[in-house]
Specification:
The complex is a heterodimer.
Chain A: H1 7-22, E1 49-54, E2 63-69, E3 72-78, H2 91-94, H3 96-100, E4 110-112, E5 118-120, H4 123-140, E6 145-149, H5 154-166, E7 171-174, H6 181-191, E8 198-199, E9 206-210, H7 221-232, E10 235-237, E11 240-242, E12 245-250, H8 255-259, E13 262-265, H9 271-285, H10 296-303, H11 308-315, H12 319-330, E14 335-339, H13 344-356, E15 364-365, H14 378-389, E16 395-399, H15 403-406, H16 413-419, E17 422-427, E18 439-442, E19 451-456, E20 459-463, H17 476-485, H18 496-505, H19 514-527, E21 529-531, E22 551-554, E23 560-564, H20 578-582, E24 596-598, H21 600-606, E25 612-617, E26 622-629, E27 637-641, E28 670-672, E29 674-681, E30 701-703, H22 704-708, E31 735-740, H23 749-757, H24 765-769, E32 778-782, E33 794-798, H25 808-811, E34 817-819, E35 825-827, H26 837-841, E36 848-849, E37 876-877, H27 883-895, H28 908-912, E38 918-922, H29 929-936, E39 941-942, E40 954-957, E41 959-961
Parallel strand pairs in A: 6-7, 6-16, 9-12, 9-14, 12-13, 16-17, 17-18, 23-27, 24-26, 30-41, 31-40
Antiparallel strand pairs in A: 1-2, 2-3, 4-5, 4-18, 8-15, 10-11, 19-20, 20-21, 23-28, 24-27, 25-26, 25-29, 31-38, 32-33, 34-35, 36-37, 39-40
Helix pairs in contact in A: 5-17, 6-13, 9-10, 9-11, 9-12, 9-13, 11-12, 14-16
Chain B: H1 13-23, H2 29-55, H3 70-94, H4 100-125, H5 151-183, H6 187-197, H7 204-237, H8 249-275, H9 284-315, H10 318-329, H11 333-345, H12 353-356, H13 359-386, H14 401-424, H15 430-446
Helix pairs in contact in B: 1-15, 2-14, 3-4, 3-7, 3-8, 3-13, 4-5, 4-8, 4-14, 5-6, 5-7, 7-8, 8-9, 8-13, 10-11, 11-13
The chains are: A alpha/beta, B mainly alpha.
């Protein structure tokens, strides 16, 4: 013992040290979360805690519930109280965790010195430097400080505006890579409001999507997928069993197009003419609602150039198809047309279509009480960038957006930032924009910060931090507030938490006393927001500002480049998350790369073969991407999804694929391109083998006609003599699943949920190519072999079928694979010796072998679910219907001395599913939801590869399709 | 037909002893270089296996869904090779086939080392080899036992039984010969042979017991010839995989095993009799008889291929038909046609008596048969897995350097052990050769090379 340290003081010190160690993290602002020294009465070590917050991954603003174990969030699930997500969540939302625990997050403030080298500095130095620069800028004059960032909720916007105002500036730019300007300005011209309409697809009978991939990306994929599933569910209309009639007009068979009845292959840019042509038929047939308020005379002149025959000739789309669309739309009991892209004439046509058929207020809603637009207009963005280039900005603060990567190259974002005096970047993983910054500050991930959202009237989401900061970061709002506090400006709040509390206090019911205020605040935090029913706003229709597409445009004017947001990587912000890179794109099934989708005939003309690197050159730039030959694209289009092509965005995004933003000039996502083979090639990696089912019963579909005739009865299980062993008794439960293939969109939220819940490792591009992908559940994508009698694509989740006669079980020499007494095909990881015979004998091929020891670079391992073993090398693993959740619920029920309730156990895939395609429950209980769903859909029941007599516990409900040319 | 067989010399008892014991003289430099070469390859294989254990099976070319490939191919191949030894020593012994006497020791030795080689592969192939013993029913406090419904457990029993019996059979047959060698050696060799000969004195009583025990052992070993490869075939046939799930597999595998095993005996004996200068003991007459077995089993194997294909067509099972279509004409179709060429076409040359005594051509044919049978197993194991029920999971397999070098190492391991053994124990049975010598003489005189 050193001198001067008595035994007594040593023990004192040791006690303090261990007490300090018991506090997770050390950031004072969030200390209230889980004070383990004096635990909350509802916090039990080993038991998860749940926090309601909101998802910040896209503008839809779904509510989420974070499962927090021992102070770290391990899963994100949907918040059932929130009307947007309604308890479901998409893959991107779940992968927010890998943004939070990303190993490439900036860990300390960095200053760029001479020669561009970054050097670590302390927070004190960093804030002082920032304050000095800001003060100098304020002194230099008005508007010399700018904020550039993504829209991050109303309170954040207020904080930001207060921040720039403290330095005499009003340049707060909220920049959204995938802007909605065309939709807003069109709405303004047609309806006199710049608000975006809210769609109620489930209220419609007919849907036309003009290039809008609402099941994948915008505007609110979880909500619209849920509505679309309801729209497509069989229901009786006019005395006949039917499903929603849907059309997709666009250059590519997207996932949304695949789930529609008809994919109408249109050249990029031709959608508007087709939309106007549909309108032409409506007007000509007078399928116009009485009270639509439409100026029919004006409209008649406007649509005159779009007679279906003429448009058909110009666009190559059959006039019959246009007529069929118009008929289905005009005669429907509720119809909705959704458009996307930068073409105002297309948006206007879609709006008029909805208005003409009297669907405003029914399928297409404008709500009262819409707040200010979350994003700045393109012209504001441009003004700010120009100011930067002109040297009029001394300090630019960037947070939450990556303009250098996502701005079309024509906007010269990098150059603008370079000319700004001093650029402060606040964020998580340093990106291309951070490369332009002088000072880099580690900011909280949205899951660590106080936020709020206002995705639409009636929905206010409260984003509360769900855990202590993973690293020594600070909330961006706090950085700005503490800087502004040094100025003479009067700020209404000290911290972001304060700001949220103050702002939300104003939302409390009028005249609430202090107790009611507390109650309101508690409820908001518990439910994750404030939800109410917003009233539909009346809009006034005007035909004066309508724009029509130039007739003749959209015809084959040569090769056109088209880009679109990737379902997982979106505008590029998802690329740093390995789950999103590794989950195959549902339609192309490609992982960890960009691809240039091209029609085989076009490819042949250009001399391009599969996997050849194509050089794509537009007037704005040039990129290279490997060719993906697909019959499901328009011959005039070459399509490359957005998202990849990062050069500085962490280890998972860097040098993967190409960045199509570089080819764009503005809001339009398509433009003329020259394509040529480079003579080099790069293999596109996919875990998919063959795309044809070859007559096997894996994903099944039936036509509406068959459904109306009662379908084919399920083949009975093999009779008694085939049973060599006595049947399993299943005295308590027999777990089973019902999966509605008709409802499944292929969105892969279930796949992401499985990765998160069951600690599935990601393996990277090369190992996916080596056949080592670890997903226990995957989306089977098959091309129909008989296109007339099939859906556009077969899409369905494939996971362990938990067979009653499981081929995997008897072949295991050591009982690692065994039948549980609740009917699961259990897998004892500790017992597995790795003969891999089980996977050989599995007809579904749903078992996964650990070829290597899985790795999670720190701190990604913090996401691991402690309820599930992490498997080592040499072990076979598989889906067990989330046996840990089953156990959890069973133990809870036993402790409470009650029977397990139906619906109490929710598997991870089921919980995530936006369309509720998956139902799980006890097959022993005929009243359970899982059995009821089967029984109510008897004609659609099938089991995958049933002829093998494996007797799966999963019953699929057949996909439904309309035979081509039938109503 | 027998006219083509040159008249074998008819050595005296002393000549037999001399020839055989001479083989066991201290070997020359060339031999040691050969042994060093073999064991360096074994060393490379062992190093790669070590790395595989350390890093995981990802270092192999195995992938979803081809979970078994070269390792299991090698296992089946070597178990197959092991078959002819017991066939020649036990079954032909029971049938009193005279020509076996000169070749059976070499065949038995081959059997032992082939099983020893085969036995390595289930271990090499295992994900967690350190838990190998879990496949055996050993007493443990958790009362965990292996799953007796799993063909892999049957396999563990079948192969270990076969290894035990073939080792016992070999070493028992060796007793009179090593006793003979003991008498003519000095130093550590004398000690070594004394231990192996178990105190053999050559008394009538010992001869009586030896003959009876040998007969019983042969009787015990005989069913194993059939059962072991049947069990190995069930590793596949018990699965429901198209291309595996077939009732023909047991007899088909046994025929294939004898086919490849006898071919391997020829591959080994033809150079060996020349290098070890025992051409007067192992005569073309012996080799001619082996060639006839190869011819017969080749026809059986060809018939099996035809039956298997016919059944696939006749069953009307679309999925199985597709698997076979892929096997014949798919990406790996060439493997199938190489196999047909090696196993069904080339052995037809053996109908010619002149070819049956042309050692060079015979040796080349035997090599082709070995290649063909290896490819047959590879096609069944990996080819069927690549194209199973779910087309979205179809993927082909390319072996990695690890698997190739471990396979090469296994051949080196086998040949090295065989070479070592051949130099240290009598590789031709002096005892039985002497017993048969009178018959041999008469047989040659009568001009008959066949044995009823």
């Amino acid at each position: 013992m050193p001198e001067g340290l008595s035994r007594r003081s040593f023990i004192k010190l040791a006690a303090t040290a261990s007490a300090a160690a018991a506090i997770p993290g050390c950031e004072p602002a969030a200390r209230k979360l889980i004070p383990y020294v004096v635990p909350d009465e509802n916090v039990t070590p080993g038991m998860p805690t749940y926090y309601a917050t909101t998802c910040a991954e896209c503008s839809a603003g779904c509510g989420v519930i974070a499962t927090v174990r021992e102070g770290r969030v391990t899963t994100l699930a949907g918040n059932p109280a929130d009307p947007v997500g309604a308890g479901a969540i998409c893959a991107r939302g779940q992968a927010a965790l890998q943004g939070l625990y990303n190993p490439d997050r900036l860990t300390a403030p960095m200053l760029r010195g001479d020669g561009g080298k970054l050097a670590k500095i302390s927070w004190d130095e960093a804030t002082k430097l920032m304050n000095d620069h800001l003060a100098a800028a304020a002194k230099a004059g008005q508007n010399r400080v700018a904020f550039v960032g993504a829209p991050q909720g109303p309170t954040f916007e207020k904080i930001t505006r207060a921040f720039v105002a403290a330095y005499g500036s009003d340049r707060a730019i909220f920049y959204q890579a995938l802007e909605t300007e065309a939709a807003r300005s069109s709405a303004h011209n047609v309806f006199g409001t710049r608000d975006l309409p809210i769609y109620k697809i489930d209220q419609a009978e007919t849907l036309i999507s003009f290039g809008a991939d609402f099941l994948e990306t915008g505007p609110s994929p979880v909500e619209l997928a849920r509505q679309y599933a309801a729209f497509r569910a069989p229901k009786t209309r006019r005395g006949q069993l039917t499903i929603g009639r849907s059309f997709y007009v666009g250059p590519r068979m997207s996932m949304t197009a695949a789930k529609c009845d008809d994919w109408i292959s249109a050249a990029p840019g031709a959608e508007a003419q087709i939309a106007w042509s549909v309108l032409h038929v409506l007007v000509a047939q007078r399928w116009i609602a009485q009270n639509s308020g439409l100026d029919l005379g004006a409209l008649t002149t406007m649509v005159s150039a779009y007679e279906p025959g003429a448009v058909g000739q110009r666009t190559g789309v059959a006039a019959d198809m246009i007529n069929a669309m118009a008929t289905a739309f005009g005669k429907a009991d509720g119809a909705v047309a959704i458009a996307s892209g930068g073409d105002e004439s297309l948006h206007m046509a879609a709006y008029i279509l909805n208005a003409a058929t009297g669907n405003i207020g029914r399928t297409t809603l404008f709500l009262e009480g819409a707040g200010p637009e979350p994003a700045s207009t393109p012209s504001d963005v441009n003004t700010a960038l120009t100011a930067m280039r002109d040297g009029k900005i001394d300090v630019a603060v960037v947070h939450g957006a990556n303009p250098v990567f996502t701005m079309p190259s024509a906007m010269r974002a990098a150059e603008s930032l370079q000319r700004a005096g001093f650029v402060v970047w606040m964020g998580t993983v340093p990106d291309e924009t951070a490369n332009m910054a002088n000072l880099l500050l580690p900011a909280h991930h949205p899951l660590e910060a106080w936020r709020d959202t206002a995705p639409r009237p009636g929905v206010r989401g409260l984003g509360q931090p769900v855990m202590q900061p993973v690293i020594q970061s600070r909330a961006a709002a706090d950085i700005m507030l503490s800087a502004a506090a040094k100025t003479s400006a009067k700020l209404p709040w000290g911290t972001a938490a304060d700001a949220i509390k103050t702002e939300w206090a104003a939302l409390a019911p009028q005249g609430s006393d202090a107790a009611a205020q507390v109650e309101f605040w508690t409820r908001a935090r518990r439910e994750g927001g404030l939800y109410s029913q917003a009233k539909s706003a009346a809009v006034k229709l005007s035909t004066t500002g309508l724009k029509t597409p130039p007739p003749g445009d959209g015809t084959s004017s040569g090769l056109t480049f088209v880009t679109y947001p990737h379902i997982f990587l979106y505008d590029g912000s998802g690329a740093d998350k390995p789950w999103l890179q590794e989950i195959p794109d549902p339609v192309s099934q490609i992982v960890w790369d960009s691809w240039a989708e091209i029609h085989p005939t076009t490819a042949a003309k250009l001399g391009i073969a599969k996997d050849d690197l194509i050089e794509l050159r537009t007037e704005h730039g040039v990129i290279e991407a490997p060719a993906l030959l697909s019959a499901y694209v328009h011959p005039d289009a070459i399509l490359v999804p957005l998202g990849q092509g990062h050069r500085s965005y962490g280890r998972y995004a860097n040098d993967v694929g190409a960045n199509p933003w570089q080819l764009l000039g503005g809001a339009s996502m398509h433009l003329a391109v020259t394509a040529k083979a480079t003579g080099r090639s790069r293999k596109l990696v996919s875990p998919l083998g063959k795309s044809e089912m070859m007559g096997r019963s894996i994903v099944e579909a039936m036509s509406l006609g068959e459904l109306r005739h009662g379908g084919e009865p399920e083949e009975p299980a093999a009779p008694g003599p085939y049973e060599m062993y006595p049947a399993f008794p299943y005295p308590n439960h027999k777990w089973g699943m019902t999966i509605d293939v008709n409802a499944c969109t292929g969105c892969s939220a279930c796949v992401a949920a499985c990765y998160a819940e069951n600690n599935l490792p990601f393996v990277g591009k090369n190992r996916v190519d080596d056949g080592s992908i670890m997903s226990w559940i995957r989306i089977e994508r098959y091309y129909p072999e008989d296109k007339e009698h099939a859906p556009n694509l077969y899409l369905a989740p494939m996971l362990c079928q938990q067979c009653n006669h499981a081929p995997c079980e008897p072949v295991c020499p050591v009982f690692a694979s065994y039948h549980t007494e609740e009917g699961l095909n259990g897998q004892v990881y500790n017992r597995c010796v790795g003969t891999r015979y089980c996977e050989n004998n599995c007809p579904y091929k749903v078992r996964r072998f650990n070829w290597f020891l899985p790795e999670w670079p720190a701190p990604l391992e913090l996401q691991l679910n402690p309820e599930v073993t992490v498997r080592g090398a040499g072990v076979m693993e598989k889906c067990t219907f989330c046996i840990q959740r089953i156990q959890h619920a069973e133990i809870d029920a036993r402790n409470a001395d009650r029977a397990l309730k139906d619906g109490e156990i929710v598997t991870a895939c089921q919980g995530a599913c936006p369309t509720r395609a998956i139902t799980f429950g006890d097959m022993n209980d005929p009243q359970s939801a899982v059995m009821q769903r089967r029984d109510q859909n008897k004609p659609r029941n099938y089991r995958a590869l049933a002829e093998l007599n494996t007797q799966p516990a999963i019953v699929y409900l057949r996909d439904l399709y309309r035979e081509k040319g039938k109503a | 037909m027998a006219a083509a067989v040159p008249e074998p010399t008819t050595p005296t008892f002393r000549e037999i002893d001399r020839s055989v014991i001479r083989v066991m003289d201290f070997p020359g430099t060339a031999y040691w270089i050969w042994i060093a070469f073999c064991f360096s390859l074994v060393g490379i294989g062992a190093a790669l296996w070590t790395r595989q254990i350390y890093e995981g099976l990802g270092v192999t070319g195995l992938r979803q869904p081809v979970m078994w490939a070269i390792y299991i191919t090698n296992f089946v191949f070597w178990v197959g090779i092991a078959h002819s030894g017991t066939l020649i020593s036990a079954i032909l012994f029971l049938f009193r086939t005279r020509w076996r006497t000169a070749v059976y020791r070499a065949a038995e030795t081959m059997t032992l080392f082939a099983v020893a080689t085969a036995g390595l592969f289930p271990m090499i192939h295992l994900g967690r080899v350190w838990f190998l013993y879990w496949l055996l029913p050993y007493p443990n406090e958790r009362f965990l036992q292996p799953n007796f419904r799993s063909p892999l457990v049957w396999d563990a029993f079948a192969v270990s039984t076969y290894l035990t019996i073939s080792a016992l059979f070999l070493f028992m047959g060796l007793i009179p010969d090593v006793a003979n060698a003991r008498e003519q050696s000095t130093g550590w060799r004398k000690t070594f042979y004394s231990i192996l000969s178990l105190g053999w004195q050559g008394t009538d009583r010992q001869w009586h017991h030896f003959s009876m025990a040998y007969l019983l052992m042969a009787g015990l070993a005989t069913p194993l010839v059939i059962s072991v490869h049947s069990v190995v075939s069930w590793d596949f046939a018990m699965a429901q995989l198209p291309g595996w799930h077939s009732t023909i597999f047991a007899p088909y595998f046994v025929a294939g095993a004898i086919f490849s095993g006898v071919a391997m005996v020829m591959t080994l004996l033809i150079p060996m009799r020349k290098w070890l200068k025992i051409e007067d003991l192992i005569t073309p007459w012996h080799i001619d008889n082996l060639a006839k077995i190869v011819l017969l089993t080749s026809l059986v194997v060809s018939y099996s291929y035809a039956t298997e294909s016919f059944m696939v067509w006749y069953s009307g099972d679309k999925i199985e038909q597709m698997t076979f279509h892929m096997r014949y004409f798919g990406q790996w179709g060439w493997i199938f046609w190489v196999m047909i060429l090696c196993n069904c076409v080339i052995p037809l040359l053996l109908f010619s008596p002149r070819i049956r005594v042309n050692m060079t051509i015979l040796w080349i044919i035997s090599i082709f048969v070995n290649i063909g049978m290896w490819f047959e197993r590879f096609d069944i194991v990996a080819g069927s897995l690549a194209t199973s029920f779910n087309p979205s999971q179809w993927h082909f397999y390319t072996p990695s350097i690890t698997e190739i070098m471990i396979t090469v190492g296994s051949f080196a391991w086998f040949l090295g052990l065989f070479s070592l053994f051949a130099k240290f124990v009598p590789i031709v049975s002096m005892t039985e050769l002497k017993e048969g010598i009178e018959f041999l003489r008469q047989a040659v005189k009568k001009g008959s090379s066949t044995e009823a």
